[in-house]
Amino acid sequence: MDDVANAAYVLTPGQGRSIDLGAFRMSVRATGEQTNGALSLLEADEPAGFGPPMHVHRDAAEAFYVLDGEYVCPAGSFIYIPAGLAHGFRVGGEASRKLNIYLPAAMVGYFDDLASATRAGEVDPDRLSEIARS
To answer: According to the model, what pLDDT value does residue 113 have?
Structure first.
């Protein structure tokens, strides 16, 4: 059996990799490599009014846990979205923070690609759609 499958994973405060997405930041708390593909966990720190368009994750369920602020629902709320279900979210009237959980592990590479495109100035809708489809 793979050593990762038998290893505990601990992340202490201040640890984890940051992904700069321009308007907001994601902090990688756990990846598929660290959880043997079971899940990925990202922390999002997003500005008031932010939200993606309706979208679907075909390869993973997504869950949110609101830490601070408001995403239509208040801090302390938990939302689960099964794979294949169209969804979106919207940050309320103040900057807010949430945990994004993907089961099985997914999306870290998407956010890395999105950050690279943003840094390279490739923010045209066609490029973003290409990243979303990959």
So the answer is: 85
104: cis peptide before it, omega within 30°? Answer: yes
Q: Tokens 């990688």 sit at which residue?
A: 28
CB 47 within 8 A of CB 97: no
CA distance 40 to 101: 6
User: Is 83 in contact with 59 (CB distance < 8 Å)?
Assistant: yes
- Mean pLDDT per block of 10 residues along the chain (134 residues) reads 70 92 91 94 96 90 97 96 95 96 93 81 64 63
Q: How far lies 7's CA from each of 2, 3, 33, 39, 41, in Å?
A: 9, 6, 11, 15, 17
